[in-house]
Design brief:
single chain, 552 residues, mainly alpha, elongated
């Protein structure tokens, strides 16, 4: 009996290590054998059997096999409740695991009471300051941020901060779990556009990981990736790129070139290049990430769908619609079959396909997809969620593209109201909603209505994102276009020029540069500045030739 128990423990340990390494096919038979042996020698209702069931469920979850994972998590929970009791810490662990599964699937209403029950058990049995209590607090904060965005300040932030304090007090300021809490709080601030708060937290988390785990550890790679994303969202691409590259090198060395985490970093680096219009550098990274996901996770896994979506978006941005369309359609099929028609990821997939059709002028195909995505967001997340606002903006933009102004205006206004209420009056998404509404008025030559809205959007971008962010350049361009349409060239020119300078200085290959050049060329010619116009025309020609060469 003792020999068998030791053998099972070895099988279980080996299987979990392979799971950690992303070697799911090799882990599965070991974990299955461990479960079968425990059932044989201990019985189907033993706590150790529950441990093996839980481990097998974690494997299924990692593979995206949610339908297989759920009954396993439920069975482990049932055993622990019956044998250990409803208030045992292991029961709380099972509740937390099942809640995380529902959270991953966007089933927030199912997840929340399980998290709350797990938290109550930990607080009662282990104490309010126990590290396991901090873990559930963190999970609840993640849920609150997604499911109750209107309560972000009052609920999610307090939960993140409480989890961080527990870990600092109990585990120490330099513990890896403390670093995880710092990263979580940083992600929360990033989502609100509070980059000045997020960056130092990410830096501190990275310092802890490097100090405790080492400079070549996968957790250090994760911390590098998090900091890089903070820089990327601010448009600080030169600061983000070396961090992504370093994270990629660590993952390739420590986890292997075929690990799913390696694919994640590849995708992030590809998106960085895509944001700068460096499509030739982005495409091979997207393809490599997709190949890794297909090989290690399978063609139907959620992460595979994300990688496929990244490649399709890259094709769409280049106008390669025929290459993008089958990918987008396949992603919709994957999401509908594995997550359901009412999942938020399905809504995102529908939105991407609709956007492709809109770009092609196939409005009649785009509209029902946008409507479906909106209905899903309203049903799952509620009528005042930021994702619902995004879905509203997408539908309204489609109407604007068709000059259906009466249909577009109330939808844009509703999206703006959601952003202001839920995210705040100075959030970057609020600036986007303002720009959209002002663009609607500009299209109707309602200059007096558009101008203060464009100005407010620009002020938000400059304050929150900074004077050199590409979104700031876009806001400058929008306001300049307003003045240009009214023939106010003296007001338009410095704004156009400033927008161009931002993109030229930091984002030399940014896709917006050609359109900005075209507007400035027309402006200079209309005001008799022919030499300036000729110089810009030569610049535009050089850009086109460079683009043709990189694409050939």
């Amino acid at each position: 009996m003792k020999t068998k128990k030791k053998s099972v423990e070895a099988l279980n340990a080996s299987g979990m290590e392979l799971l950690r390494q992303g070697q799911y096919a090799q882990a599965k038979p070991l974990l299955q054998r461990a479960l079968a042996t425990r059932e044989e020698i201990l019985g189907e209702d033993h706590p150790d059997t529950a441990d093996s069931i839980n481990n097998l469920a974690l494997l299924c979850e990692a593979q995206g096999q949610y339908a297989h994972a759920e009954p396993l998590f439920q069975r482990a929970l049932q055993i622990r409740e019956e044998v250990l009791g409803a208030d045992h810490p292991d029961t709380a662990t099972s509740l937390n695991n099942l809640a995380l599964l529902y959270d991953t699937q966007g089933q927030y209403a199912k997840a929340e009471p399980l998290f709350q029950r797990a938290l109550a058990i930990y607080e009662e049995i282990l104490g309010a300051e126990h590290p396991d209590t901090a873990t559930v607090l963190n999970n609840l904060a993640n849920l609150a941020q997604l499911y109750h965005p209107q309560d972000q300040q009052s609920q999610a932030e307090q939960l993140y901060q409480r989890a961080l304090k527990i870990r600092e007090d109990v585990l120490g300021a330099d513990h890896p779990d403390t670093a995880t809490s710092l990263s979580n709080l940083a992600n929360f601030y990033e989502a609100q556009g509070l980059f000045a708060k997020a960056e130092p937290l990410c830096k501190r988390a990275l310092e802890i990981k490097e100090k405790i785990c080492g400079s070549e550890h996968p957790d250090t790679a994760t911390a590098l990736n998090n900091l890089a994303q903070i820089y990327e969202v601010q448009g600080l691409y030169p600061k983000a790129e070396p961090l992504f590259n370093r994270a990629l090198a660590i993952c390739e060395h420590s986890l292997g070139s075929e690990h799913p985490d390696t694919a994640t970093i590849l995708s992030n680096l590809a998106k960085l290049y895509e944001s700068q219009g460096l499509y030739a550098k982005a495409e091979p990274l997207c393809k490599r990430a997709l190949a890794i996901c297909e090989a290690s996770l399978g063609a139907e896994h959620n992460q595979t769908a994300i990688s496929l979506s990244n490649l399709a978006l890259l094709y769409k941005d280049q106008g390669l619609y025929e290459q993008a369309e089958p990918h987008f359609q396949h992603i919709v099929t994957i999401c509908e079959e594995h997550l359901g028609a009412d999942h938020t990821d399905t809504a995102a997939a529908l939105n991407n396909l609709a956007s492709l059709y809109e770009s092609q002028g196939r409005y009649e195909k785009a509209e029902p997809l946008y409507q479906r995505a909106l209905n899903t967001c309203e049903k799952i997340l509620g009528p005042e969620h930021p994702d619902t606002a995004t879905a509203l903006n997408n539908l309204a933009s489609l109407y604007l593209a068709q000059s259906l102004f009466p249909q577009a205006e109330p939808i844009f206004q509703r999206a703006l109201a959601i952003c202001e209420k839920v995210l705040g009056s100075e959030h970057p998404d609020t600036a986007t909603a303002l720009n959209n509404l002002a663009s609607l008025y500009l299209e109707q030559d309602l200059y007096a209505q558009a101008e203060p809205i464009f100005q407010r959007a620009l002020a938000i971008c400059e304050k929150v994102l900074g004077p050199t962010h590409p979104d700031t350049a876009e806001s400058l361009n929008n306001l300049a276009s307003l003045y240009f349409e009214q023939g106010l060239m003296a007001q338009a020119e410095p704004l156009f020029q400033r927008a161009l300078n931002i993109l030229q200085a930091t984002y030399q290959h940014h896709p917006t540069i050609p359109s900005l050049l075209a507007e400035l060329i027309v402006l200079h010619r209309s005001t008799g500045k022919l030499k300036k116009a000729a110089a810009l025309e030569q610049w535009a020609q050089n850009l086109q030739e460079s683009s043709d060469e990189s694409g050939s």
